[in-house]
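worker-03 picked up job from queue 'complexes'. Input manifest follows; two sequence lines, order preserved.
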Amino acid sequence: ETGVTQTPRHLVMGMTNKKSLKCEQHLGHNAMYWYKQSAKKPLELMFVYNFKEQTENNSVPSRFSPECPNSSHLFLHLHTLQPEDSALYLCASSQDRVETQYFGPGTRLLVL
Amino acid sequence: AQSVTQPDIHITVSEGASLELRCNYSYGATPYLFWYVQSPGQGLQLLLKYFSGDTLVQGIKGFEAEFKRSQSSFNLRKPSVHWSDAAEYFCAVGPTNYGGSQGNLIFGKGTKLSVKP
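worker-03 finished. Artifact:
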């Protein structure tokens, strides 16, 4: 595997479910990001991890819970989501915080 | 406030025609500049970036972009568009030094490109 991978690619969940999104980067980078992309909106940065430490949480609701066990893996745990949370969730990584970000293919989430 | 403007939401060009996608930014200092492309249902792929040096940068897939400091612009160009170029294009700016929450990429809203046969 090369680059940034995300699983699953598609996810349908009910509002009472708990699920997790996984991201893995094979680039040796130190920083990882979660973005949300909704229709007709710019990309929204959700969380940033630098050297496994969370450095930013952009006022994201607590029903989204990130986890970064090491510099290569990033998870987004989901629980009691709302239909408006349906979106494409993108993971990215970069060597340092100001370096080029490389994106994964995304997880398309539908909340029913 | 820092911002990126892509004034064209949707552009349609004929295959073989030239293309220019506009990007203007508002930033406190000269930022790093990026163009990404996104095919339907996919993630963002880096086309090219400007960090310093020559203001005309070459990217993948035959794209190029020119940084014009006086106009705060970073327009993307391609001399001859192929049907496979149909996608959404995002301009982004980022800081040259990390400064807390100011150290994030700022994306434009994107320009959707359609290609006529």
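worker-03 released lock.
The mean pLDDT of chain B is 92.
The longest strand of chain B covers residues 87-94.
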